[in-house]
Amino acid sequence: MPATRLHRVAVLVLEGAKPLDVGIPAQVFTTRASMPYEVRVCGAAPGLVTGGDGLSYHVAHGLDALEWAEIVFVPGYRFPDREDPPPAVVDALLAAHARGARLAAISTGAFALAATGLLDGRRATTHWHYTRALAERHPLVKVDENVLFVDEGSVLTSAGAASGIDLCLHVLRGDLGVAASNHAARRLVAAPYRSGGQAQYVPRSVPEPLGERFAATREWALHRLDGPLTLDALARHAGVSARTFSRRFAEDTGYTPMQWVMRARIDLARELLERSERSVEQIADDVGLGTGANLRLHFQRILGTTPSEYRRTFTKGE
Q1: What are the b/e assignments for 250-260, b being 16+ CB within 10 Å?
Q2: With 80 as the cut, is the pLDDT of residue 189 above it?
Q3: What does the pLDDT look like over 222-241, one tens digit per residue?
Q4: pTM for the full model?
Q5: What is the pLDDT at residue 197?
Q6: Rounded to whole angstroms, how far apart are CA atoms 170 and 313?
């Protein structure tokens, strides 16, 4: 695990803030021994903030928290398509970004980021119900309605509330590595990773038994990454044709089955690099990639770095 200094997280609660959107980053990044983050919940000013869905919030901090934070989460709020946040909020977000803070929106919090102009010319998403309104209100934003979240480096956006969990776990993976992200996912009883490119929703009903079968197949595959895993073997385990399995698997995960298998292998390799002293050759064998050269090839293609460089990020003195 990387250095133990606390990463500073601010959750900016605007008028009409949605309870689940507020709670997700507050809970995911809550300060605890296994999570080196300090969280401050703030508003335009300290005190009572009227929320949405019958709840209000008493926040201890005002916009000064954005001067302190390294990452600022902006939860969704009510009627974002009608008016921009107060100028002081927009200015504080711009100043935080200029100082190097990352800005991350959950659901309709994307409207607040768009009001700063920081999303102009960039890809972004929001709750599917508001994607058209976001595009109309901010025509310079490249709105993508068919994804769970978008990472543009210093600005990140996510779709409806549950995808805020995906975004937070994505941030964790980048900050602390796969092991920490998986630990947080287990604590939340959430899927450890869903592709940001996965569709926000499938526009037809999915028979529940098949959904359960696909989840069981993914779990089955995760325990067999060190051996051969073919499309036919996966489909056979799920009890469907390879064609049906490929189509439905992509709808469920955002990846083809074999893309998912490769990423699962790379994720396992990342965790072994973070937490063990096994050699690259040994890890390649552990994750079913055979040789260190093969592992290096796919690691570079997917993550843009080498196993050795990745390990140095998560170890001391190596």
Answers
A1: bebbbbebeeb
A2: no
A3: 899 999 999 999 999 999 99
A4: 0.71
A5: 44
A6: 17
Instruction: Determine the average pLDDT of the residues in 239-262.
Output: 89
Q: By three-state DSSP, how is residue 15 classified? A: coil
User: 265: which 2 tokens?
Assistant: 């292998």
- Distance from C-alpha of 318 to C-alpha of 313, rounded to nearest angstrom: 9
At 240, the amino acid letter reads V
Tell which residue, 235, 239, 236, has the closest CA to residue 247.
Answer: 235
| Separation between Cα atoms, residue 106 and residue 99, nearest integer Å | 21
Residues 111, 105: Cα–Cα separation, whole Å: 8
What is the per-residue pLDDT for 66?
A: 97
Find the helix packing angle between 178-188 and 19-28, rounded to 10°: 130
Q: Name the helix (H) or strand (E) containing 153.
A: none
Residue 311, token pair as written in the block: 């390990």
Neighbouring CB atoms inside 10 A of 208's CB total 8
Which residues have CB under 8 Å from 128's CB, separation 6+? 145, 159, 160, 200, 201
Tokens 């959430």 belong to 190
